Amino acid sequence: MPSALLKRFPQVRVLLVGDLLADHYLYGQTERISREAPVLIVRHEREELKLGGGANAAANARALGARVSAIGVIGRDDFGRQMSALFKASGITLRAVTTAVTETRTRVLAGGLSTTRQQMLRIDRGVVGPLPARVRASLAVQVLDAGRKADVVMVSDYGAGVLCDETRAALRAIAAEGVPVCVDSRFGLNDFAGLTVCKPNEPELAAFTGLPIRNDAELLAAGHAAQKRLQCEVLLVTRGRKGMTLFERGQKPLHLPVYGSEEAVDVTGAGDTVSATFALALGAGGRPFEAARLANIAGALVVQKQGTATVSRPELARELSR
Known about the structure:
By secondary structure, the protein is α/β, with parallel strands linked by helices. It has helices at residues 2-7, 54-63, 78-90, 133-147, 165-176, 202-209, 216-230, 270-283, 288-302, 313-321, and strands at residues 13-18, 20-33, 40-53, 67-75, 93-99, 104-111, 118-125, 152-157, 181-185, 197-198, 234-238, 244-248, 254-256.
């Protein structure tokens, strides 16, 4: 039963390995067109920082009640200090290697008086190119050490360099020892062959396989091709308004229609919620189809929230009780 599985979440030890991004939001009110250039002038109102990328996946796992550790890179800057404070406040054990700059995504949201603020611009900053060799070596050592003590490992790859050759080798060693390793990679799915679970969305699956996905039959063909190429036990394909499809080795594919009838408010970070819920359910001893059903519900709940958000264990429990 999903509710019984949810009750075991607080006993699950989760390790998150990934790109720990700072999601920085600037809110303002639009005033007029600038005389300097054909752009809007925005009057600053407030700003906030949230755990983003892999950090948001860790925050989702923690909100669901798990015992969470996170390994990644944090800068020695103000955003890095704020991120460290957010990890501490969330109850997540941070095992970060420090660099000069925190990987940050600044979003400017603005609108007129008494209107909903909408995203106008996004500015990305951080390290360009591979991480230094000493950082990569240190990350790999920490991944091996912490991964062997975890019930499940979540991998969140946003292309910021933490998932390098060294850390991927450590993850394969952990998976070979029997610890489930669940991968969500936006940019390099091909580099994660041989791990337990891979979670692409539909466009990522099409790009990875080179196959068109215009209907369910083509989705099944692409899913089987990807699972064979990745040599993973489970492939979970998220499909937006079409729900998700689970490919489990030795089982028929399982289609899960989107949960609920409400339109999404904001899909930012929804994949992190799905990844965290699925991984926790596996770590708690659930079967892949049980994990997928819980993840499908959690994903439907989080897209009803604005911005980078999480779903708590009580929220998910209430939805299950319905």
